[in-house]
C-alpha cells in the first residue's frame, strides 16, 4: 500500500431534525415560511438527531477498510457522504480518483431506464466516454449475466438482478475507490462468489475498497483495517480482530445479555501453546492413571448413575490416547469462573458462575485448532430436580447458531439432581476455523421427552481460535486432503 491518502474524512457530522409528529413537521414548515416572509428568525421544532458525530479517519491507496456497526449506527450515511450523494452538516470529506459506489439497491440507477441505458448513464457519471463504455459493454453484460433483461426497464428487475447490474458496472469502470454497502448480501450464492473473487483481484491490483459489512468474518478475511461505528460515533479504527472483539462484546451487551469474559491470565494467553502441545501435556498427566479415567469423566458423580459419562475405549496405548476422552475432567480452579448476577426470580436451577478453561480448569481464551477446551458452569439447584437437562450452543460473533446440543439429545437423561451446587463441564474440541466463537448455555428439565429451559446464559464466554495457514475460510474446519489422480 502506498502512503497516498485516497479518502480523508475530517470531523464529519451529519444531523437530522426529527419530529415527534406530522403536526410538528408542519409547524416547522410553516415557521420556515413565516420567517422567510417576515425576515424573522425561524423557530425550531423537533429535535436534532446526529446520525454521525465528529468522525475522522483516512484511507490510503490500496487499503481495504471495513466498516461495522449495528443497524442505524451511521454506516450508510458515512458512505453516502463519502460518495457525494449526501451532504454533511459539519466537517469535510475529500476523495482522490474515480469512485465507483454500490450503495443501497439501485442507487445511481433510474428505474424507468433499461439496463443498457443505466449502464451508459452510470458509467458516464463516473467520467467514462461513450467509446469507453462501448469497449466494456460486453464484459459488463457477461459479468451481470441477466440475459435479455438488459433491454427491459430496471423497475421490472428483481433486487438480485439490480445488484448484478450495479456490481458489473462498478467493477468495469476501473475505479480507484470501490465503495460497497452490504449490497452483495442480496445476490445469489454463485454470483456472490463471483463478486468476491473479483473484489480480491481488484485488491491485488491496488484498488482501494471501503466496505460496509455485518459479517465479522468478512471484516477479518477481506480488510486491512476495521472501523467500528456506534450510535454515529467512531469508537474504534484499527486492527480488524480488535474491532471484531469490541463489536462482539457490545452486541451481546446491547441485546440484553450480560457480558462476562472469562478472566484471561496474561501469562497463559500470551504464550498460547502451539497446536498439539496441550494434548501432549494432557496425555502425560493421565499416564499411569488410566483405571480411574472413566470415573473421573462423569460430569456429576452420583453412585449408581451412569449418565453423563464420556465414552472411553480402554484398550488403547497411552500414546494413542486423545485428551478429549482420556484427560480427567477436574474441578475448575474457582478463580477461573466468572460470577453471574443473581436475578430476583430464580428457577429451580440457575447459574452462579461460568467460564471457559483448558483441561486443567484454568481460564483461557486463545486456543489452537483441535485443542481441547472446557466450558464450565456452577449451577445452583434449589429443589430435587428429576430429569435435569443441560444445553450448549456455539455461535458466531454475529449470533448465528453454528451448533447446539443438549444432554437429552445425547441420551444423557433420567437422573435425579440433589439440591446444592453442581459443576457442569462441557468438554469440546476446537474443530473450527480461526476466529472468534461464542457459547451459550442452558439448563432445564426433561418434561414429556422435551427439554424445557429453566435458565439460559446468552453469553457464557468466547474463545479465539488462532487461524491456520491453508485451513480455508468459514467456521467449519473440514481438514481437507486433496489428490489429483492420473487417469488412463
Ligand atoms: N433522512 C433521515 N432523517 C432522519 N434520520 C435519518 C435519516 N436518514 C437516516 N437517519 C437515521 O440515521 C441513523 C443512521 O442511519 P444509517 O442508514 O446510516 O445507519 P446504518 O448503520 O447504515 O444502518 P443499517 O445497518 O441498518 O443499514 C439511523 O438512526 C437512521 O434512522
How would you describe this protein?
By secondary structure, the chain is of the alpha/beta class. Among the domains are: about 1-95 and about 220-255, Rossmann fold (3-Layer(aba) Sandwich); about 265-300 and about 320-465, abc- transporter (atp binding component) like domain (Coagulation Factor XIII, Chain A, domain 1). Helix content is about 25%, strand content about 30%. It contains twelve helices and 18 strands. The strands form four sheets. The chain has a six-stranded mixed β-sheet, with helices on both faces. A hairpin with a 2-residue loop joins β8 (about 225-230) and β9. α3 (about 115-125) packs across α4 (about 130-145) and α4 crosses α5. The longest helix is centred in the N-terminal third of the chain and has 17 residues, at about 20-40. The radius of gyration is 28 Å and the shape is globular. Mean pLDDT is about 80; it is low at about 255-315. Adenosine-5'-triphosphate (ATP) binds next to β1, β2 and α2.
Amino acid at each position: 500500500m502506498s502512503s497516498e491518502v485516497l479518502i480523508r474524512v475530517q470531523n464529519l457530522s451529519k444531523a437530522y431534525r426529527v419530529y415527534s409528529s406530522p403536526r410538528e413537521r408542519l409547524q416547522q414548515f410553516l415557521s420556515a415560511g413565516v420567517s422567510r416572509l417576515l425576515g424573522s428568525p425561524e423557530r425550531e421544532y423537533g429535535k436534532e438527531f446526529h446520525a454521525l458525530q465528529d468522525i475522522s479517519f483516512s484511507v490510503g491507496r490500496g487499503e481495504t477498510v471495513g466498516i461495522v456497526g449495528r443497524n442505524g449506527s451511521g454506516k450508510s450515511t458515512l458512505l453516502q457522504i463519502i460518495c457525494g450523494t449526501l451532504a454533511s452538516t459539519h466537517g469535510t470529506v475529500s476523495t482522490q480518483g474515480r469512485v465507483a459506489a454500490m450503495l443501497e439497491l439501485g442507487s445511481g440507477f433510474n428505474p424507468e431506464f433499461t439496463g443498457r441505458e443505466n449502464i451508459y448513464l452510470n458509467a458516464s457519471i463516473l467520467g467514462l466516454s461513450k467509446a469507453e463504455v462501448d469497449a466494456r459493454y460486453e464484459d459488463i453484460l457477461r459479468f451481470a449475466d441477466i440475459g435479455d433483461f438488459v433491454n427491459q426497464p430496471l423497475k421490472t428487475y428483481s433486487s438480485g438482478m439490480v445488484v448484478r447490474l450495479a456490481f458489473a458496472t462498478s467493477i468495469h469502470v476501473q475505479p480507484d475507490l470501490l465503495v460497497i454497502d452490504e449490497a452483495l448480501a442480496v445476490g445469489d450464492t454463485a454470483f456472490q462468489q463471483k463478486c468476491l473473487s473479483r473484489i480480491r483481484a481488484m485488491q491485488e491490483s491496488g484498488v482501494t475498497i471501503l466496505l460496509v459489512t455485518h459479517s465479522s468474518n468478512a471484516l477479518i478475511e477481506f480488510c486491512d483495517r476495521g472501523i467500528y461505528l456506534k450510535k454515529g460515533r467512531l469508537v474504534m479504527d484499527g486492527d480488524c480482530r480488535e474491532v471484531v472483539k469490541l463489536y462482539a462484546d457490545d452486541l451481546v451487551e446491547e441485546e440484553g445479555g450480560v457480558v462476562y469474559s472469562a478472566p484471561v491470565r496474561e501469562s497463559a494467553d500470551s504464550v498460547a501453546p502451539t497446536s498439539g502441545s496441550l494434548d501432549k501435556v494432557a496425555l502425560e498427566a493421565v499416564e499411569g492413571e488410566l483405571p480411574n479415567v472413566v470415573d473421573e469423566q462423569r460430569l456429576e458423580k452420583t453412585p449408581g448413575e451412569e449418565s453423563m459419562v464420556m465414552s472411553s475405549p480402554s484398550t488403547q496405548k497411552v500414546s494413542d490416547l486423545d485428551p478429549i476422552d482420556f484427560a480427567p475432567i477436574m474441578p475448575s480452579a474457582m478463580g477461573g469462573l466468572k460470577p453471574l448476577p443473581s436475578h430476583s426470580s430464580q428457577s429451580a436451577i440457575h447459574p452462579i458462575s461460568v467460564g471457559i478453561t483448558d483441561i486443567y480448569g484454568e481460564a483461557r481464551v486463545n486456543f489452537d485448532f483441535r485443542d481441547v477446551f472446557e466450558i464450565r458452569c456452577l449451577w445452583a439447584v434449589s429443589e430435587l430436580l428429576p430429569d435435569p437437562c443441560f444445553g450448549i450452543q456455539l455461535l458466531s460473533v454475529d449470533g448465528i447458531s453454528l451448533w447446539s446440543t443438549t444432554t437429552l439429545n445425547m441420551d444423557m437423561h433420567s437422573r435425579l439432581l440433589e439440591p446444592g451446587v453442581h459443576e457442569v463441564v462441557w468438554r469440546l474440541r476446537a474443530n473450527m476455523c480461526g476466529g472468534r466463537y461464542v457459547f451459550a448455555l442452558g439448563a432445564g428439565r426433561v418434561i414429556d421427552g422435551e427439554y424445557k429451559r429453566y435458565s439460559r446464559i446468552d453469553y457464557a464466554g468466547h474463545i479465539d481460535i488462532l487461524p491456520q495457514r491453508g485451513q480455508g475460510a468459514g467456521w467449519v474446519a473440514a481438514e481437507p486432503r486433496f489428490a489429483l489422480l492420473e487417469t488412463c
